[in-house]
Structure formats: C-alpha cells, structure tokens
Specification:
It contains 14 helices and two strands; from the N terminus they run αααααααααααββααα. It is mainly alpha-helical.
C-alpha cells in the first residue's frame, strides 16, 4: 500500500522538478524544510523519522523496568541517565519530523492505531539484569551502525539531530559492554546470565537492520534519495564482524553453529535470523508488543489534561495579543 502511494505521489510531481531535486541529492546537497521536495520523499522521511522517534521512546520501557531493581546505586544512576538520553533522542526526532508538516500528536496517534511501528527489538522482554548489558552492547551497538551514516542523510534537520544522538549512543554501548564484562567475569551464575542474555538478544539484534536489501520495500528508493546511506545486508555484516571479537573477549559464545570466518570476503559467514518471526513482530505479535503499546496508550491518555492546558494557554496568549493591538 505504501509503495503504491509513493508511486502515485511521484507521478503527480513535475518531472523537471524531480530531475532537479535528484541532481541536488546526487551533488550531496542538504534538503531543508522550506525547499521543494517530492511528496514521496517527504512521506518517506515522515515514516522513517517517526518510527525512529517512536523507537527511542518505546525503547525506554524495557530498561525502565529495571530502574528499581538495578544492583547498586551507581548502576541505577547510570541507567536513569541513559533513559533520559533516550527521551531526548525521541524529542529531537519528533522535532525533525515536525519540520515536514506533521505534528507530534499525529505521529503518536499513528503509532497507537498501528499506522506506524517501533523497532522490532523493543517487542522483546527484559528478564534479567544481564539484559541491560545485552541491550547496551548489542542493541545500541546495532543502532550506532544504523545511525552514524544518517549524519550524512540528505535531509538537513534529520542529519543534524543524529550528530548528538550518535555521540550519546556510543556511551550507551560502552555502558552495556561494561555490564557484560562484569557479568562474564563474575560468578558462574552471573556468566550464565550473560550468556543467556546474549542467546536471546542475538537474532533480534540482527533483525534491527531490516530484511535483506532484495526483500526491502523501501531501501532502493531511500538510498537513491540518500535518506539511507548503506544497505541492510552491508550493515548487518559489519555488525557481526565487529561483535564476534568482542564476544570472544568476554569469553561468551554467539548462538550460531554456522558462524565461521570467510577468508575470501574477509568477514564472517553467519545464520540469518528467522524473518517469519521478524514480520510477525512487526504485525504486533511480539512477546511484549501489546504491553509496549498499552504503556504508550496509557501515557497518551494520562497526558490529555496537559495537552488541553497547553492549547488553552496558547489561546489565552493569542487573545491577549489581539486585545493589545
């Protein structure tokens, strides 16, 4: 449906404007909010930035579940700081999306009624403290590989938002790896917890890069517009290649019996995740999908009075301004 909508929008755009726009993209120029852009480009950005923003906000829920159960005051404060960062990331991205002519309220409504998604990784539960390590190390590590190239994306507000986000995500990845180091070098039970967290989050982390480029609906056009810079398969390979040595350093084992070094491609061969599971999760059938949406729905409902007060205050200020004139 979305692909058909893009084709329909593209057909309505002026061919000369489309050609001029593509030349700007090919020349590496940034597109700014007041610049002319194809409607399909705008809608693609709204989809990508909106789902990115939702993922930052929903992504607080699995880790927020462990704030009160962190093993020390230091770990609690570190986790709180990380979640504060994630909330900020969501707000930066909602602001970037608003420059495309869509409101934050509209984006939230699209998430709640199923028209937008959040990253599949956050539909999985966090069962032990070691999961905080796995999320920081694997999930944020995968996010960094996805997001660093977005600092060069063609849409200016999105690219600029990613600069700070990527800097902060690098701290999150180190924080997660630190937890895994402590667990892996601790008692036998702690090491087993670390291995269990790795076992459960490995394949969902590989899914974060999306399906293979051949199966992806959006990749080809997004890369032509430089909304995306790298293909899904390229980034997934890079993630595996950098994570295997880290896993060996920890003394843990990646749960893939087919993992092996391929001298010819100078990278690892590895098993693909279960893509049937991935698409099922995207349809809202993940282990914690319903729980995540229920939490966002409750937050939306609880915030009604805030939104109403904001609108009333704005109306009052506008009335006072008119009266003063």
């Amino acid at each position: 449906m979305y692909a058909q909508m893009i084709q329909s929008d593209a057909a309505q755009d002026d061919p000369e404007k489309l050609d001029a726009f593509q030349r700007r993209i090919d020349a590496g120029e940034k597109v700014e909010p007041k610049d002319w852009m194809p409607e399909a480009y705008r809608k693609t950005l709204i989809r990508q930035i909106g789902q990115h923003a939702h993922s930052e906000i929903v992504g607080q829920l699995p880790e927020g579940n462990w704030i009160t159960r962190a093993p020390s005051l230091e770990r609690k404060t570190i986790l709180l700081a990380k979640l504060q960062d994630e909330a900020g990331h969501g707000l930066y991205l909602y602001c970037a999306a608003e420059t495309l002519g869509i409101s934050r309220d509209e984006l939230t409504e699209m998430l709640l009624d199923g028209r937008m998604k959040f990253s599949s990784i956050f539909a999985y539960p966090t069962l032990t403290w070691a999961d905080m390590g796995a999320i920081g190390w694997l999930v944020d590590g995968a996010a960094i590989l996805n997001q660093v190239p977005l600092q060069r994306t063609s849409y200016g507000p999105y690219a600029r938002a990613m600069v700070r986000i990527c800097k902060e995500e690098s701290f999150h990845q180190r924080q997660g790896f630190d937890i895994m180091m402590k667990m892996a070098s601790g008692t036998d039970e702690q090491k087993r917890m670390a291995q269990d967290a790795l076992d459960r989050f490995w394949y969902p982390s590989l899914m974060m890069f999306g399906p293979s480029d051949a199966e992806s609906v959006h990749s080809e056009q997004s890369m032509a517009w430089k909304i995306k810079i790298n293909g899904n398969d390229e980034l997934r390979q890079k993630f595996v290649d950098q994570t295997v040595p880290q896993t060996e350093y920890l003394g843990l084992t990646i749960p893939d019996g087919h993992l092996s070094w391929n001298e010819e491609k100078a990278g690892y061969d590895f098993s693909q995740p279960d893509w049937t599971e991935f698409f099922d999760v995207l349809r809202g059938n993940g282990p914690a999908s319903a729980e995540r949406i229920e939490a966002r729905q409750q937050a939306w409902n609880d915030g009604v009075w805030v939104r109403e007060a904001r609108l009333a205050h704005a109306a009052k200020k506008q009335a006072a301004k008119v009266a003063a004139q």
